[in-house]
Amino acid sequence: MNLLWVLLRQRLRRDRAQSALWVVGIAALALMATTAVTSTFGDSAERAGILRLTMVAPAILMFRGTPNGAEEGQFVFFLMCAFLALLAGLMSTFLAVRHTRGDEEAGRAELVAATPASRMLPTTATVLHGVLANAVIGLGVAVAFVVSGLDVSGSFVAGAAVAACGVAFLSIGLVFAQLFRASRAANAAGVAAVIAAYFVRGIGDAAGEPSADGLHRTPLWISWLSPIGWAQRTGAFAENDLAPLLIALVFAVLLVALVYVFQSVRDSGASVLPGLRGRDHAGPLLSGSFGLAWKLSTGAVLSWAAGAAVMGALATSLTPLVDRFGSEVPEVAVRLQQMAGAGASLEQALTTTFFSVIGILAAACALQLIMRARQEEAHGTAEPVLATPVPRQRWLAEYGVVAFIGVVVVIAVSMLGAFAGAQSADDPAAMSQDAAQAAVAQLPAVFVYLGIGMLLFVLVPRVMIGVAWAALALGAFFGVFGELLGLPDWVHDLSPFAHSPLPVGDDVDWTGGVWMIAIGAAAVGVAIVAMRRRELVAAG
Description:
Blueprint: H1 2-14, H2 16-40, H3 44-56, H4 72-98, H5 101-106, H6 108-113, H7 121-147, H8 152-179, H9 183-206, E1 209-210, E2 217-218, H10 227-232, H11 243-265, H12 289-317, H13 322-328, H14 330-340, H15 346-378, H16 382-386, H17 392-421, H18 428-440, H19 443-459, H20 464-481, H21 489-492, E3 503-504, E4 507-508, H22 511-530
Antiparallel strand pairs: 1-2, 3-4
């Protein structure tokens, strides 16, 4: 028991900065979203109008949740539950892989195995650490809702739903850490599982059965396949049913038991699934450090591009609903037009709103590719490259170029999807032009995040991953949804996405875009220059 406490305390100490960022960030998002919804949609009729709109356009539910009433708490749970559960899932899978497969790669697991600790004890400490982290997140969400004035019992049911969902994803991350030989592959599989669960839940909501009053929707059976769907089934602030969370807990117990079985039969450093054999001879692409950086990043670029293509198609294919949207929910229509700028048509507002989300995807792609450099450094695989005549400034600059190319690919693919979706519009040419302008307008903000990622990599490498994702999450929330939720202008303006040069009528103002390009270029330049004197930093 003393050894277990030592291992648990070591994990808590090691993750104190990252865990604090996740907990505070998720709770702050819950608090700000609830406050903004209360001030913006204080009228029950407005909330009911938005819910009835989702019955007309169920594709909206892919990115929201299950409508379950127009009361204030019910509406907040509809807007935020799936997103909060998504964040808790990402935090949990990263934690699980970092303290299992990551420790084996770094050699820490072997050192622990040389002590009187059993082979299972480190895994047990990781499970306890993950459960505690999710319990704190759930408590933070509940307190945020209570402070905002929502019902206490519903708030704690919502917090428990987010926490239970995180625990379910923790067990999934632990399984992937056993299956794959590299933490990179385990993390990628964990992220894919979380995103898949989010969209499976969305499909179940979109294909569900609406109620006669248009305020409720019964999800399709497929939502039972998603841990996020289990969280939503609690019906916080309405039914307050905790029974679906038992599924998440039983699911987690079974997967953790499977992890112990795998742990008992495999060698340290080995994996359940055999690694793929590489080619006997490298192709010309791998003849240099730039080609290696691109090869390592191809999978991530393709994944983000696929998501951007879907969003691009939705950006223009939903425009036939614009007239009905404007007549049934005029308040939200006004908010959307405010987001796009005075003089923007409602069609432009919807298109630019979707492309703002695509901008977030592109920024996430840029950050992930810069994080690839950090992973190479932490795992020790960057050192052999830098032992050749490759200066460290050039090495970092090459990852920056790869990230920029990845962003261009993501934006270009989203434009192709938008062009395909625009064919159903009354004026496909005009719609395609607006989509192209809105797509290009995302590049300056994404370039800022590319610079932020490179600066964090140079200045604070040990915490750059958590800080970078937190910066993107806050920027996305403030910039894309700030106007819609009625946040103060100064908060909205903190986000690079708030200054994207979006099309307004026949005009596009690139003043903010030029400034962001300059800021991004300055950040990239400072990072490359500062890299000259920075020592390599192993995994912390």
